[in-house]
């Protein structure tokens, strides 16, 4: 089927007609073409092609009444209210533009053409013939937005484009940003370093990371952030885009964002989750932290009279042991028994496993 329009016989009265053209290509011409066009006629073509394409339009014939700034008869090419071209006449002058070899390209997939004639066509101008076709938009190279179309790689094809990610990343369901899987790690050592992925290079977008730190009961985790800290923030709203949070039992620290590190955090817990959320835009360097586990502190025990203890320290913490013994001539008496040594342990709750024993003078004559 031809996409050519049937000539529209409009002659005497002012008439406005709208014609819709769709498909990958087509042509249009002035009423009665190749005969002279009628007077007092308006004809409007709306051309659209599928999404992902733009329209290229050019004229193979053009012959219209010349007038100053094309005020009598003209052809106007518009898109979304913007005039792309206004043509009239038979040759180029200072005030009249003819299409000649010019190719008009629509920014998107639609275009409209308006033909208008005034009250006379006595010179019998023949009008115009124009052709259009859909051409692919190279989305990967036509980046008008500030944000990149694709986070990592952009692939153009006819009628569309798609994004892909560098090795190790996954394409988010937005089909644009590249996220990471970052929630499997459990840190069980008593100290360690963790950081945002790729730190200090910008962290991945659209990601939700959970880092668990689990140490034995009786230890308390302390977290110190690195001075290099850069998490996307907002001047008026608290961390609406990206944030770091620390959950320790029922306590929560944060959200943290901006360029100032949170400093030292004493969690009082042996079980901590570091949560990091990033949205789909921005390039920020991220964060790094060092954690250390310190045991519960036991009170320094009093040395019993004539007693000795080993080791002597200014402080004792969870898992430390003390061995009590007595000076020569004395023995430990604990729960009615004489012993050479007696061990106590600093427990998870910060108490000793037993009270300190006594030293009793050994009296061989009574034995
Ligand atoms: Ca005219
Ligand atoms: Ca394309
Ligand atoms: Ca962000």
From TrEMBL:
Family annotation (SUPFAM superfamilies): Complement control module/SCR domain, EGF/Laminin, Spermadhesin, CUB domain
Domain CUB: 14-135, 182-294
GO annotations of cellular component type: extracellular space
Domain spans labelled Sushi: 296-361
Subcellular location: Secreted
GO molecular function: calcium ion binding; serine-type endopeptidase activity
Keywords: Disulfide bond, EGF-like domain, Hydrolase, Immunity, Innate immunity, Metal-binding, Protease, Repeat, Secreted, Serine protease, Signal, Sushi
Signal peptide feature range: 1-16
Classification via Pfam families: CUB (PF00431), EGF_CA (PF07645), Sushi (PF00084)
GO biological process, one term: proteolysis
Cystine pairs: 182-209
InterPro entries, alphabetized: CUB_dom, EGF, EGF-like_Ca-bd_dom, EGF_Ca-bd_CS, NOTCH1_EGF-like, Sperma_CUB_dom_sf, Sushi/SCR/CCP_sf, Sushi_SCR_CCP_dom
Entry keyword Signal: yes
Protein name: Mannan-binding lectin serine peptidase 1
Organism of origin: Mastacembelus armatus
């Amino acid at each position: 089927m031809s996409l050519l329009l049937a000539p529209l016989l409009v002659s005497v009265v002012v008439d406005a007609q709208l014609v819709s053209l769709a498909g990958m290509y087509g042509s249009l011409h002035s009423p009665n073409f190749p005969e002279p066009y009628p007077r007092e006629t308006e004809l409007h073509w709306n051309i659209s092609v599928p999404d992902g394409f733009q329209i290229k339009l050019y004229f193979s014939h053009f012959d219209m009444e010349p007038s100053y700034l094309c005020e009598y008869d003209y052809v106007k090419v518009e898109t979304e209210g913007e005039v792309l071209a206004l043509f009239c006449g038979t040759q180029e002058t200072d005030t009249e533009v003819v299409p000649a070899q010019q190719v008009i390209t629509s920014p998107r997939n639609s275009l409209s053409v308006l033909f208008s004639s005034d009250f006379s066509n006595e010179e019998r101008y023949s009008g115009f013939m124009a052709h259009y076709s859909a051409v692919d938009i190279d989305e990967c190279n036509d980046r008008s937005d500030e944000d990149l179309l694709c986070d990592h790689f952009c692939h153009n094809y006819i009628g569309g484009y798609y994004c892909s990610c560098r090795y190790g990343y996954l394409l988010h369901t937005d089909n644009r940003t590249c996220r990471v899987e970052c929630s499997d790690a459990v840190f069980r050592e008593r100290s360690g370093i963790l950081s945002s992925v790729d730190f200090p290079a910008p962290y991945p977008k659209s990601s939700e990371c959970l880092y668990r730190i689990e140490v034995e009961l009786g230890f308390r985790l302390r977290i110190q952030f690195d001075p290099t800290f850069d998490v996307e923030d907002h001047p008026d709203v608290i961390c609406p885009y990206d944030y770091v949070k620390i959950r320790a039992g029922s306590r929560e620290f944060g959200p943290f964002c901006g360029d100032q590190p949170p400093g030292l955090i004493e969690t009082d817990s042996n079980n901590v989750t570091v949560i990091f959320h990033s949205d789909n835009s921005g390039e920020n360097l991220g964060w790094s932290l060092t954690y250390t586990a310190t045991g519960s502190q036991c009170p320094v025990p009093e040395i019993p009279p004539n007693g000795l203890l080993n080791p002597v320290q200014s402080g004792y913490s969870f898992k430390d042991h003390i061995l009590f013994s007595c000076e020569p001539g004395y023995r430990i008496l604990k729960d009615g028994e004489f012993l050479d040594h007696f061990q106590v342990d600093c427990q998870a709750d910060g108490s000793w496993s037993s009270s300190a024993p006594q030293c009793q003078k050994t009296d061989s004559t009574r034995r």
